[in-house]
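Handout, tutorial session.
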Amino acid sequence: MLAAGCAEVKSSQPVPPVAQARPHSYTVHGITVEDPYHWLKDQSYPKVDDPDVLAYLEAENAYFDAVMAPHRELADTLFAEIKARQKPDDANVPVKEGDYFYQWRFEAEGQYRVWSRWPATERGADEGPSAQAQVILDEPALAKDVDYFRLGALSVSNNGRLMAYSTDTTGAERFTLRVKGLDTGELLGEVIENTSGNPVWPADDGSFFYTVVDDNWRPYQVRRHVLGTPVADDTVVYEESDPGFFVAVSSTSSKRYVVISSGDHVTAEVYVVAADAPASAPLLVAARRQEHDYSLDHQGDRFVIRTNDTHKNNRLVTAPDGDPSEGAWETLVAGSDERYILGFQPFADFLAVEERIDGLDQIRLIDRAGQTTYIEFPEAAYRVGIGANEEFESRTLRLGYESMVTPDSVFDYDLDTAGLRTRKVQEIPSGYDAAGYVTERVMAPARDGVRVPVSIVYRKGTPMDGSAPLYLYGYGAYGSGMSPSFSTTRLSLLDRGFIYAIAHIRGGDELGYHWYEAGKLDRRTNTFNDFVDVARHLIAEGFTGQGRIAIAGGSAGGELMGAVVNQAPELWGAVAAHVPFVDVLNTMLDTSLPLTPIEWPEWGNPIEDKAVFEYIRSYSPYDQLGPGHYPPMLVTAGLNDPRVTYWEPAKYVAKLRTLKQDDNPLLMKTNMGAGHGGKSGRFDSLYEVAEEYAFMLWSIAGDE
């Protein structure tokens, strides 16, 4: 039975719940906005206990189950395929840190990892764990009695005797930090609530630095806890007063400094604390100024800093060990229009730099004499990044590598031999032959003349006459580029005749920082236009046909889904909008939400600027819904999601139900015990992918 706030209609077919429209309006800049579904935001949030709200979400879940019931067999078949591609007892390549090798492993059928270590003198990484390998953290045991589990941090002290780790059992991303004695296996008395990020051990291991979040989920303080003392007595090392800045703490690669970073999406401020003097005051590196973004690491005798102070694609500078201040910076790698510097890691004898040139990932090595070497890779298009490298004195660099047809791989690059050694290639137990698939990169013309890269993969023999269905993915925000990477799950679509494409639209940084800037603030609609124009180009080139395109995106990519559905609903055969940021205007006006102030550099501040208010309102998917025909849609939410709050997708679906003039399915699924990332277990999360694929196959193919 539906509670007040929803209507129920008797029918032989499942009938969706209809949320009440309750009068609510507000006026900003002299403009009045009606929002009849405002009530779906529980006023006691982050606690959600309003019976009408819960009843509506549960009713939508029941409707989802009822509509999906005839297609459950297809979802189960897809899940079985996807699961069969996962190595049941998968493990990472062991990582040496100090006197030990560390490794995580899934037990067969395990949803969570077991972490272990063994002495580096006893057995090498290639030989695997010794018979006496020590289990240091058992995630399955910790997750046994909870519906949701996520490990937030695992940090071992320098002497290897203590481990700080944090867990989240709700999906709200408020982690509880504990300390374990690795000699005894016993938990110490320290229990610290509401933490985020990795704790950092200074040189003496008698204390650790950690970050805490406030009531609005903003990481705002770095504190230092001395072992054996009351948590209430912990020293506040740094507190950020700007509500638009988030704080993090880390360690330099040399382990000589603790780094405190504060910033939003475009501006940073960094402090350092000497690891051998943990009680000393933090030393400022460069005072914040608008849109100056920088990060810092340490190379034993000097600091290395990535900064956008002279070029938006960043440069690398160095500074003396005793003086990281801006006045002491000297250029190591100059900024360049062609070269986009993404990140770096210093080692004792060399510096590894992540770059992107013409949209292609590169790894650059710079020795102490300033000489540069680029690592060569076997394919023309791929994704590569610096992997887990914990040994500062190493002459080997670990890398992660994959492409649209090459499974996730781990390489070690030997600087002395200039050779790549394959340490692991993702195993697909059910079988996979890369030769059976084709990958392409095309450039699609956008309506303003810009050419947008598109990465494509399909099974050999797939028709190119416009008849094939196509899955198009996009994100386009925060400068987060979508790499041409591998996926075991999408093989289920490729093997059923789908073409898979990633649209590298503006708002990401695939082609450099300018690509990001061209899709944010008052140019945000470029992102949506690019996605639509990519789809039209793929239709024109015979990859697919109108109405044969399944599209998907999550979070800001979910906003993309809502915007392109409003702009060109006729193009799409199915839409999956995961935890979608669709109520952009209301969220950017709501300063009680943790992410609102930090998001203003990305979207603009509609409170202070009427033009920003009107621009956001002009594209905000929730605000732009109107009467018409809409494609089949699957929308997801997480009740405990602190990033995109549950009421955004709930309000969107409630409003759309009253406006759509077609019989296409509109489904919403809310994870009542999870957050932004959906369910936490590796197989539970894969089943949600299978559900999405089943929805798309059913919607586009019309059969199973």
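The second record follows below. Compare its token runs with those of the first.
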Amino acid sequence: MDSDAPIYTIRDAYLHFGARSLFSGLELYLTKNARYCLVGRNGSGKSTLLKVIAGQQEADKAEIFIQPGTVVSYMAQDDELSGFASLRDVVLSGLTKEQRLTEEYKADILIEKFGIAANANPKTASGGERKKAALARALINDPDILLLDEPTNHMDIAAIEQLEETLSKFTGALVVISHDKTFLKRVSDNTIWLDRGIVRMLNKGFDAFGDWQERIYEQEDTERRRLNKKIEAETEWLHKGVTARRRRNQGRLHKLYDLRNERREQIKKTGSVDLNIDQGEIKTNLIIEAKNISKSFGERTIVSGFSLRLMRGNKIGIVGANGVGKTTLLRMLTGRLEPDTGFVRQARNLQEVYFDQNRAALDPTKTLKETLCPDGGDYVFVLGESRHVRSYLKDFLFSPTQADTPVSVLSGGEKNRLLLARELAKPSNFLVLDEPTNDLDMDTLDLLQEALANYKGTVLIVSHDRDFLDNTATSLLYMAGDGSVVEYVDSCSNMLAKIKEKEERIKPAAKLVEKKEKPVRSASNQAPRLSYKDKRLLELLPDEITALEQQIKTLESKLSEPDLYARSATEFEQTADALEKAKQQLDEKETKWLELNLLAEKNPS
């Protein structure tokens, strides 16, 4: 079979939900070795299209061809796993009974690769653990077509990078839906855009999507302007004398009506989310001061000896693997949880808006209107003015008819938008965003990023979305899981690269530790002795390390001066750069000292 020949084709496909058309006349084909990202706004029908390809939902009408013997695996956005006793059983459910007799070992390979808690109960396991198990289930039968709906939701950055590596080696056809732009850029080489019921395909990855989308919209705008000019000309002619020539010119009048109807029927771009944030007033520069705070649960240390001065206008991201305690740190900094040691002080007159990752603030029994107008009426107070609730809902991509629908029927993305609509309208000078990007579509993400960039207040963000953090956070707090919290004045992408470099530098020392634990070898095979230069370094390094630690303390103290940036932006940047270089030198010298010390212990002189 030709490797470029489609293994799946769907033509002339139509699907309606009531009066709403998800797509009409749709045509799509998938080839092996191609990795497609499926993009489009929330509610455009991406997940439904994925279900149609998976054979889990029928189109109203469609011509479908699939190569005989093709294996299709599908992972839903929220797989139902409560019927399984353990996450290992979830993974094994991807195999048939016959396959389990000879291929059960594949489950153990995938469980180890993704670091899945195999014996955990799906009912009590975290969202990230359930997601990894569902992914392993989709991969275990070596599918020819792999369909993934929001695979990175609830995953930490390490798990996302592991998934990226796995998908880079996948040889079948991959179709993935995700709001994680960095993930899409790394895994896709083709783009499927579902927009207003129309599917467009581009033989380039997500990197090229933005420019392509703009070109399409510009073409539509040009065509719309051309049509409007034509209508204006016909209308002007009509007003000049159609009444006197009514019988003779009925044809031209009908042409005008047809043009108006064409414009009415013309598919227009959906409205954009209007994310203006009402900003409260605060006069103090120091928003939060945490001094030597620690927190443990039993024998497990979450935070140990951490200090922070959060200044007005800072936008700080909190990053780390699932379970390291990011939300715990957030709750301590916002006064929701007392530290075991140390203290946290907050500025007076803080007007806080807390965006909770569990969306617990939404009452599922209330309507959208009742959610935005809890005291009744039809108006919501936004940015100092009164807005009709239906008009305000339209800013967030809701139709006026949805105002009276209950929150319980909304999708995850729609609940996010509703919560944003309610919370961001409140006057605030301090935003706390715990996983705000989950289930948001890309257009809403872009607008949220823009709103945060223009926001003059202070922001704390917990997120695994690397692109979102790159575009919003002024610095990052990295939690390694051992109680340490390290601040990086850098982008998330650069920070992760530096952490990987540090881990690579430490590997030689770790290998020396392993060798030390092995039986003593014969004299001829023993490790080389320290040279005179190495011995001299071993003597000098402790003093150099102490000097660097003092330099780092001095630089950190200088950066914490509230008026430094206002006094001299250049001096602030130079100090930040010097601090980063000092930290890197400290890492290098500590690693070198460890290597030499281990070598000296192995071969004492």
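Points raised in discussion: The domain at 6-211 is CATH 3.40.50.300 (Rossmann fold).
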